[in-house]
TrEMBL record:
It comes from the Archaea. Gene3D superfamilies: Phosphoglycerate kinase, N-terminal domain. Pathway: Carbohydrate degradation; glycolysis; pyruvate from D-glyceraldehyde 3-phosphate: step 2/5. InterPro entries: Phosphoglycerate_kinase, Phosphoglycerate_kinase_N, Phosphoglycerate_kinase_sf. This is Phosphoglycerate kinase. The lineage of its organism: Archaea, Methanobacteriati, Methanobacteriota, Stenosarchaea group, Halobacteria. PANTHER family: PHOSPHOGLYCERATE KINASE, PHOSPHOGLYCERATE KINASE 1, CHLOROPLASTIC-RELATED. GO terms for biological process: glycolytic process. (2R)-3-phosphoglycerate binds at residues 36, 116, 156. Monomer. It is an enzyme of class 2 (transferase). Its main location: cytoplasm. It is found in: Cytoplasm. Keywords: ATP-binding, Cytoplasm, Glycolysis, Kinase, Nucleotide-binding, Transferase.
Length: 394
């Protein structure tokens, strides 16, 4: 049984709220997309309106990445989005941070600095060890309660995700609650169940395909994006040097597993029939029989969209993760648009993923039963795994 905000006595309480506002960042360091911030408005405004003193904990990027930035801009955006007053401090658990939390007024929000500026936060620990990390042990004494709304990071056993409930009463925020309701019992959703795996996390998606095909959770797996190119390659098709380089880089050492999956589940595991490339500045579709080509495959073609659309139209549940192509460029958004529009014909449609959510917003797509804020976390649930964040709240 997980407690929710309905069980929390918020008035005057100092509440640490872990959110996932990890977002695309522009080259000048400002936020490129605020979908994930918008998702947490309900939880944060509700707590503030009920008189809590809200300390926001969040990460942005990973050490070494271009998007590993401070949360100053996130705080400014939150200030525009929330009804409550929002402050920011460039510290997470130091004396300065603790003092700011102690002096927070009822009904106001303080954004603490990027948790991953501290090395322990990029490691994973069992909850009892996470509880004695510097971040958790330092901050817990100034908090009365902990709320986890960071569904998109719920598959990470990191200190700010699993450590606090060892010290404090823990509650699920509204995002977490909704996600667990929608994704918590995938095995009882209508069948046939069709998973469509796109995007660029080829190694993860090969693992997902393997799990859902073997467990029977998936009746059919459709593949698109770089994932589709990788499975196409695994059937023995030569896509050309550029596509092969990208898919090989992204597959890690899992390409052999893709071949095994095709041998075992060939009839339930579908690969693209055509791809789209850029030639003389135009989108050109190339059917699989006409491969290889020198240009990289940037999208699936219209024959694939039509064939996958037929499968999805007959699905009880359609589960889509990852765009079908480089949707950031309009001419390669065609496959993503077609496939996601087609998926709404399934009786019940779930879509998930950080870039997927951006694509849905950018392309103005709608009609899904559930749009998950999580990519990896949603896929973990959709393969029947339990999530460390959820276990910690239990
Ligand atoms: N054929 C392709 N070639 C190169 N990149 C692709 C291709 N198809 C999709 N992508 C890229 O995949 C990225 C999203 O993948 P991923 O991070 O796995 O999705 P999500 O965050 O939704 O789980 C996008 O930036 C998109 O441009
Ligand atoms: O963006 C996230 O995950 P996602 O790309 O799977 O949606 C989360 O913020 C987790 O980030 P991480 O994968 O760096 O631990």
């Amino acid at each position: 049984m997980i407690r929710t905000l309905d069980d929390l006595d918020a008035e005057g309480a100092a509440v640490g709220v872990r959110v996932d506002i990890n977002s695309p960042v522009a080259p000048d360091g400002t936020l490129d997309d605020d979908s994930r911030l918008r998702a947490h408005v309900e939880t944060l405004d509700e707590l503030a309106a009920r008189g809590a003193r809200v300390a926001v904990l969040a990460h942005q990027g990973r050490p070494g990445g271009d998007d590993f930035t401070s949360l100053a801009d996130h705080a400014e955006r939150l200030s525009a989005l929330l009804d409550a007053p929002v402050e920011y401090v460039d510290a997470t658990f130091s004396a300065a941070a603790r003092e700011r939390v102690r002096s927070l007024a009822d009904g106001s929000v303080l954004v603490l600095e990027n948790t991953r500026f501290y090395s322990e936060e990029v490691m994973q620990f069992p909850p009892a060890e996470a509880a004695s990390t510097h971040l958790v042990a330092g901050l817990a004494p100034v908090l009365d309660a902990y709320v986890n709304d960071a569904f998109a990071a719920a598959h990470r056993s990191q200190p700010s995700i699993v450590g606090f409930p060892e010290h404090l009463p823990g509650y699920a925020g509204r995002v977490m609650e909704r996600e667990l309701d929608a994704l918590g019992d995938i095995a009882s959703t209508p069948t046939p169940r069709v998973y469509c795996l796109g995007g660029a996390k080829v190694d993860d998606s090969i693992g997902v395909a393997s799990t859902v095909l073997e467990s029977g959770l998936a009746d059919v797996v459709l593949t698109a994006g770089v994932v589709g190119n990788a499975f196409l390659h695994a059937t023995g098709v030569d896509l050309g040097p550029e596509s092969t380089r990208v898919l090989t880089d992204r597959a890690g050492d899992r390409l052999a597993q893709a071949e095994e999956l095709l041998d075992t589940y060939g009839d339930r595991l579908h690969v693209p029939l055509d791809v789209a490339v850029e030639r003389d500045g135009e989108r050109v579709e190339v059917s699989v029989e006409d491969l290889p080509v020198p240009e990289p495959a940037m999208d699936v073609g219209s024959a694939t969209v039509a064939a996958y659309g037929d499968v999805l139209a007959n699905a009880g549940t359609g589960i889509l993760n990852g765009p079908a192509g480089v949707f950031e460029e309009e001419r390669f958004a065609v496959g993503t648009r077609g496939l996601f529009e087609g998926a709404t014909a399934a009786d019940y449609t779930i879509v998930g993923g950080g870039d997927t959510a951006s694509a849905i917003r950018r392309l103005g797509l709608s009609g899904f039963d559930h749009v998950s804020t999580g990519g990896g976390a949603a896929l973990a649930m959709l393969t029947g795994e339990s999530l460390p964040a959820v276990e910690a709240l239990r």
